[in-house]
Amino acid sequence: MGETFGRDVCRILLVDDHKLLMEGVRSLLAPHAHLRVAGMAQSGGEAVALAASLAPQIVIMDLGMPGMNGVDASRAVLQVQPQARILIYTGHEDQRFLPELIDLGIMGHVRKSEPPGVLLKAIESLRRGEIFLTCPDPGGCLADLLRRRRDAAEQGGAGDLSALSPREKEIFRLLADGKSVKNIAQDLCISPKTVETHKYNLLTKLQAGSVGALVKIAIRHGLVRV
Fold first, then answer.
1. What gap in Å lies between CA 205 and CA 103, rounded to an integer?
2. Is 10 helix (H, G, I), strand (E, B) or coil?
3. Are 164 and 172 in contact, with CB atoms under 8 Å apart?
4. CA spacing 20 to 30 A to 192: which of 27, 68, 83, 101?
5. 87 strand-pairing partners
6. 95 near 51, Cβ under 8 Å?
């Protein structure tokens, strides 16, 4: 891309297999000098590569893409760019995917059927570090879960186990004991993908750069013997 943005400009990555829609979003953002589209990707793989090279602050992610879908792409983007704030922008009304997306750490969800102004409002909310959802959320449960996960990641601090869920602590001990993702999945009767998600969350919450760093934290807390 090669374009240089000012320090106060929010870099945005658009991810959608419909280029015309991305051009529409680009046009929507054009009048706003502090919001700039740094790149556009038409597949999950392309999104991951651009996220790594462009370091966007906000990623506007479609879900229904061929090949790597939006859920898997969000997971991969956060692995290469943990600080990115992901806003799901989708035409899907089915919300069965939301728990997994929330577990990944997305910060917003907007349906494409909403007026353009809602997307702008969502972007501004994420830019301020706030949660934004347009899907039905009785009692604010989803927003509360998203908020708690965000706060835990921001305030947990390196090696602070208080931010971990019981399941994360269980997987943390197994990883520290040297068990592989595949073995953990078999032991707990869950999918390897779910274990990978928990592993990523552990690395993020504990600010560890590798499983080796997790082992050191476990030793420091007396969870494993040396």
1. 12
2. strand
3. yes
4. 83
5. 60, 108
6. no
Which pLDDT score is estimated for 46? 95
Spatial neighbors of 163 by CB under 8 A, at least 6 apart, are 152, 153, 155, 156, 205
- For residue 88, what are the β-bridge partners? 61, 109
C-alpha distances in angstroms, 43 versus 18, 48, 77, 86?
10, 9, 12, 15
All residues at 6 or more sequence positions from 120 whose CB lies less than 8 Å from its CB, including other chains: 28, 29, 32
Start-to-end C-alpha separation, the chain = 49
Helix (H) or strand (E) holding 220: helix 211-220
CB contact at 8 A, 143 and 123: no
Give, for 98, the enclosing helix (H) or strand (E).
helix 98-104
Residue with tokens 């760019």: 81
Q: DSSP E strands: which ranges in the chain?
A: 10-15, 35-41, 58-61, 85-90, 108-111, 132-133
Residue 109 CB contacts under 8 Å (≥ 6 apart), including other chains: 87, 88, 90, 98, 101, 132, 133, 134, 135
Question: Confidence class of residue 13 from pLDDT cuts 50, 70 and 90?
Answer: very high
Using CA atoms, how far residue 16 sits from 6, 49, 189, in Å, is 26, 14, 34
Q: 155: pLDDT confidence band, cut at 50, 70 and 90? A: very low
Give residues with Cβ within 8 angstroms of 87, minimum separation 6: 58, 59, 60, 61, 106, 107, 108, 109, 110, 122, 123, 126, 132
